[in-house]
Amino acid sequence: MNIENLLIEAKKLSTPELSDALDYFSLPGVVYELKSVTGNRSFAGRAWTVRYIPVDHNNPGSVGDYIDQVQSDDVVVIDNAGRTDCTVWGGILSQVASKKGIAGTVINGVSRDTTVAIDAGYPIFALSHFMRTGKDRVQVAEICGAVNLGGTLVNHGDIIVADTDGVVVLELSIAEKVINRAREMKEIEDEIVKDALDGMSIKEAREKHNYHLLQRNPTK
Known about the structure:
There is one protein chain. The chain has helices at residues 3-10, 15-24, 91-100, 114-119, 172-197, 202-208, and strands spanning 35-36, 43-54, 74-79, 104-108, 110-111, 124-126, 128-129, 138-143, 147-149, 152-154, 159-163, 166-170. With 220 residues, the protein is α/β, with parallel strands linked by helices. The strands form 3 sheets. Strands 1, 2, 3, 4, 6, 8, 11 and 12 form an 8-stranded mixed sheet that branches. A two-stranded parallel ribbon has the order 5-7. The longest helix has 26 residues, at 172-197. It is elongated and about 65 Å long.
């Protein structure tokens, strides 16, 4: 499955469904603590990674000019080392990203100008939001490299899926099998719901479809 088809299929699945599939294969990919700070918006796209470090006062660098290189439908993934004392994303970036058609931003850290992002219809997932600027406090150390997102490794180009329940990372080499397994499990759960709504007890419906074994890989 090529990347375009992977993204099409990923957008049909929720983060709980993908998380269950990751569990089935005993794979990492669930991101801890990040949540939507701009309302209930979901997206999927390829990671465009940025890593920040504390500012070098002898040679201060940029805080956000990389946005010119990000393509539509990419997801900006920012590692600010989990800092909550200063932001690495604000209103200017939200408005530019929305205009460019960027899918969303996820941050191992905090963002600001939340109302501006909401008004622009731009989704942000972060540890929280805070008003203090990152200028003269942090600077970009690397773009398009490996980053830490809530304890999960993200490589440039990985698939990012985010919704009301959080954020999931799918490494490209395993994305297809995880998506396929998530789709299979979703179909089974849909059958359980159908049987239950048709009058079968939950216990009977779950037993019929081996619900309690869905996340167990028989080969492990």
